[in-house]
Amino acid sequence: MTEVSSAINPTPAVTVRKGPRGEVRIFATWCKGCHICVEFCPTKVLAMHPNGNHPIVIAQEKCTACHFCDTHCPDLAISVKKIE
Question: CB–CB of 11/18 below 8 Å?
Answer without folding.
Answer: no
